[in-house]
Design brief:
415 residues; mainly alpha; Growth Hormone, Chain: A; 18 helices
Length: 415
């Protein structure tokens, strides 16, 4: 794998460079390595958390829905603060370091956590760390990338991130296969991976000063840009689609309940989704650069709709399960990196982190509401009927989102 040694936006590819990765800044690649190691850590825990909480701890679907919503949405409370702090100082790396550090500490804090309140507290700390780091990190990616290659740069970063997300469940599976029920070993190994990722960020990622630093923007201006005309429709579309996005844990629990496979195989569901995401992140990022990021974002939710329908079928099997995982991977590849790439071109460079954070905040809050609502629906009518209801609502929301995002790429001419 080759990367450009240049970290400035606009750096040209080496003559004859034929691969996408060769044309991506080394800063993007290093941040991808940090995310890879961090995602090994986080996905080790995330892949066993739904089953651990419902089977080992004994949470009801409603309680799990609240905790899953917390996992999805609590980061919203600090995302804009993290984005603004990175914009204000012009050095988002150190804001990201603080966020990665908080998440690393939460891994080891899972060891003494017992009961719903303690686990919720640890999950909250982890997600607050994620919320703090994500927008500054994405602002660094945007700063180090050519405007015409934002989709590719985010795609390469997300591909490395997802490679770690695929490895994490495999490590968890191996540990559980070696020592069944040994959740403590998962928390310890997860902490070790998080520490290595934090070390790579501190020691090797350059302290790339963004163009925002010279501007010293005020909070009022940042908020005005977030609420501006260019972002209004994309944020509304993100909210509508986000509130109809069922959390991965619920989808996997519905597959486990339908097909009744052994608990030890549960982490492998995450592997299947992440392998599909890994394979498609860069191609769909490149496609978004060519045909429009808004179009690819909407198409990704079409894949999510098909995923709901397959998961809601009364009879399962290996083929249908793999279909669900593939479609879920397509959804993430078409949305996770594409949304920040889209938003980063709709706001001035000096408020880029705040704009990305605003979009991520909207999505996080929407998914919090989605998890709580889906948990309630599951308790009342079961997973299959709940998935069909969400599918019907998403079918109506997709064309509405397409209308809201119409022409948004042409509007993104911010230097």
């Amino acid at each position: 794998m080759y990367v450009s040694l240049r970290d400035q936006p606009g750096a040209d590819a080496a003559p004859g460079a034929g691969s996408t990765v060769r044309r991506v800044s080394s800063t993007v690649f290093l941040l991808g390595v940090v995310s890879l190691l961090t995602d090994v850590s986080s996905e080790m825990v995330a892949s066993i958390l739904p089953l651990y909480l419902t089977a080992a701890v004994g949470l009801s679907p409603v309680a799990y829905g609240f905790l899953d919503g917390t996992y999805q949405g609590v980061s919203a409370f600090v995302r804009i603060a993290g984005g603004y702090a990175g914009d204000r100082g012009g050095q988002p790396k150190w804001v990201a370091v603080l966020g990665y550090g908080a998440s690393a500490l939460s891994r080891i804090a899972m060891l003494p956590a017992a009961g719903f309140a303690a686990i919720t507290g640890v999950v909250t700390a982890d997600r607050l760390g994620k919320g703090l780091r994500t927008a500054p990190r994405d602002a660094l990616i945007a700063e180090a990338s050519e405007p015409s290659m934002l989709g590719r740069s985010f795609g390469v970063h997300r591909a490395l991130d997802t490679f770690g997300a695929a490895l994490g469940p495999l490590v968890a599976f191996a540990l559980l296969a070696t020592v069944p029920g040994s959740y403590d070993s998962i928390f310890v190994v997860s902490f070790a991976f998080a520490l290595v990722g934090l070390a790579v960020l501190v020691l090797f990622v350059p302290n790339l000063r963004t163009t925002a630093g010279a501007a010293r923007i005020g909070l009022r201006r940042a908020l005005r840009e977030i609420g501006g005309r260019k972002l209004r429709r994309p944020l509304l579309a993100a909210a509508v689609l986000g509130v109809l996005t069922v959390g991965d844990g619920f989808l996997y629990l519905s597959l486990q309940e339908r097909d009744n496979f052994a608990a030890g195989y549960f982490p492998l569901l995450y592997v299947g989704t992440n392998v599909a995401y890994l394979a498609l992140a860069v191609p769909l990022g490149r496609l978004a650069d060519r045909v429009g990021r808004g179009r690819v974002l909407v198409a990704g939710h079409g894949a999510l709709l098909a995923c709901y329908l397959l998961a809601a079928l009364p009879a399962g099997g290996v083929g249908l399960t793999l279909g669900v995982l593939l479609l879920l991977g397509v959804f993430y590849a078409a949305t996770d990196g594409v949304l920040p790439a889209l938003v980063s071109r709709l706001v001035p460079a000096e408020t880029r982190g705040s704009g990305i954070a605003a979009a991520q905040t909207v999505v996080a809050l929407a998914r919090f509401a989605s998890s709580v609502l889906f948990g309630l629906l599951w308790s009342v009518q079961g997973p299959s009927r709940s998935l069909l209801l969400f599918a019907a609502l998403l079918l109506a929301a997709v064309p509405a989102a397409a209308w809201l995002l119409r022409g948004v790429d042409r509007a993104g001419a911010t230097p």
